[in-house]
Amino acid sequence: MEPQIKRWKGSACDTDSWVAYPVLSDDQSQDVELIEAFAAPIVDKKETSRLIRELNSLYPLNGLQHIKRVRACKGKGSPHPLEVLVCLVSDAPDVKDVSIGSLLPSDGVRHDGLGEPFVVKVPARPPLTRPQFELASKHWPTSFHEDKQVTVALRGELFSPPQKATMHLYMMSAFTAAEAGKEMGMEAVGAVVVNPATQRIIAVGHDCRGDHPLHHAVMVCIDLVAQSQGGGCYSFDRYPACRFTSSDTDTFKSGEASSQPYICTGYDLYVTREPCVMCAMALVHSRIGRVFYGTASADGALGTKFKIHSQKDLNHRFEVYKGVLSKQCEDLKGLESHNRKQSLED
Amino acid sequence: MGTQGGSEAAAAESFYPSDEDREKWMANAFDMARDALENGEVPVGCLMVYNDEVVGKGRNEVNETKNATRHAEMVALDQLLDWCRHSNLDVRSVCEQTALYVTVEPCIMCAAALRLLNIPVVVYGCRNERFGGCGSVLEVSSANLPQTGTTFKCVSGHRAEEAVEMLKTFYKQENPNGD
Ligand SMILES: [Zn+2]
Ligand SMILES: [Zn+2]
Ligand SMILES: [Zn+2]
């Protein structure tokens, strides 16, 4: 691998031209949902710990452990230093005239040190990403258990320059296969399956749907991987750019190959455009390790229309990154629509 | 169903299996499933019927091919394509008049494949809670996916308990400890 990587350095296809971003689940990428709560100023700071204790036992804010009970009001020229959450608006549905007296029965919480309540909005769910955390914190102080990898990935900095060079190489193989397929009248889509542990390419394939409407590049690659392990059910001999490396030389898996029903376990897929629903679910069934794609597609199922890789209820999930060699992969799509237009005109 | 184009909707409307057809072909699919179960295979029976003729039949071939996409439906679709080739018939016009009869709801992948081939009707037995693409996990059958063929109609629940029983028996055999 090393000599090949060096050859790419400083070439026209430099790795600075693209950034790989993670395709996160809906939970991780959705807007911050807010709910209304009553807060009140703490006018006498000495009462703070007693107020927190008594409020926690009267209104425990169940399911909102990510929210801090008290916030500081510094630097706003505020007459009081702290504000405390009294309860959710939904905790006091029958209270008509909102006042500290109507919210707090005098036997539960002594009002000493509390000012009159007002409505605030607080985040309904714990933030999962740094952007969600930053948005949530604008409304009310929120705690955050940071997944550092996600934070770095969202900045587009998860992969080091040498890693990007390798990814670049793999996607170039997929790109070249896409071009070869297009030469033979297929849609310009290419894919590569890699074993990241050995850095070996297991299979390279391109779209073959001229022969068979379901032979999308990903489906072709999955069968080629099966062939590399002594299985498979199609012949792609007609297509020199569709090929595989036999797994007897791929020492990583050879011992377990016969007992391993999930042929893509631990493997990465590089594909020039986002897979469709069929291909995305085929990757779930094959237990793919990670998927990298160049550019989104209209009915894509790994980010655009669905996020099958993070679908609740499915028994296998995997990481997806988009944007690898994005410019070149986008250009492939351009070639394609041009082809289609031509064939309509003919 | 609002996502269907006018002509496609009309074609699907005119093509709908009768109660009698459903009874007959599902009986056939259940025989296949029972047969598979007795041979220690995944008990799913699946056939594609065009013009009162079986043009594709499938059973799960994942283990022998080491290809995890070889579900019964995918095998049956391959046979249908072969049949078209050998009969010199246009794939699309055959598919638009073909119904799939299957004992278990097609998975997400197979549902998308059925769309891509413009199959208008799927008759199935029980739900597929783990992978179902006709509503159980995702509703691929009716989703707005203009680049992914055409939507299809589902007729579900035919001998559902029986289909579930067969699956349960199979997974118990596979994994007697239940873990
Ligand atoms: Zn596809
Ligand atoms: Zn054939
Ligand atoms: Zn399936």
TrEMBL record, chain A:
Entry protein name: Adenosine deaminase tRNA specific 3
Cofactor requirements of the protein: Zn(2+)
Keyword tRNA processing attached: yes
GO CC list: cytoplasm; nucleus
Gene3D superfamilies xrefs: Cytidine Deaminase, domain 2
Keyword Transferase attributed: no
GO terms under biological process: tRNA processing
SUPFAM superfamilies in the cross-refs: Cytidine deaminase-like
Similarity comment: Belongs to the cytidine and deoxycytidylate deaminase family. ADAT3 subfamily.
Keywords, alphabetical: tRNA processing
Pfam families reported for this sequence: dCMP_cyt_deam_1 (PF00383)
InterPro entries for the chain: CMP_dCMP_dom, Cytidine_deaminase-like
Alphabetized PROSITE patterns for the sequence: CYT_DCMP_DEAMINASES_2
Lineage: superkingdom: Eukaryota
MF annotations from Gene Ontology: tRNA-specific adenosine-34 deaminase activity
Residue ranges of every copy of the CMP/dCMP-type deaminase domain listed in the record: 165-321
Automatic annotation (TrEMBL), chain B:
Annotated function: Probably participates in deamination of adenosine-34 to inosine in many tRNAs.
Protein's recorded name: tRNA-specific adenosine deaminase 2
Family: Belongs to the cytidine and deoxycytidylate deaminase family. ADAT2 subfamily.
Record flagged with keyword Zinc: yes
GO CC list: cytoplasm; nucleus
Top enzyme category: hydrolase
One GO term (biological process): tRNA wobble adenosine to inosine editing
Annotated ranges, domain CMP/dCMP-type deaminase: 20-145
Gene3D superfamilies: Cytidine Deaminase, domain 2
Upper taxonomic lineage: Eukaryota, Metazoa, Chordata, Craniata, Vertebrata
EC number(s) per entry: 3.5.4.33
CDD domains for the chain: nucleoside_deaminase
Domain of life (superkingdom): Eukaryota
SUPFAM superfamilies linked to this entry: Cytidine deaminase-like
UniProt KW keywords: Hydrolase, Metal-binding, tRNA processing, Zinc
Keyword Hydrolase set for record: yes
InterPro entries: APOBEC/CMP_deaminase_Zn-bd, CMP_dCMP_dom, Cytidine_deaminase-like
Catalytic activity of the protein: adenosine(34) in tRNA + H2O + H(+) = inosine(34) in tRNA + NH4(+)
MF terms in GO: tRNA-specific adenosine-34 deaminase activity; zinc ion binding
Cofactor entry: Zn(2+)
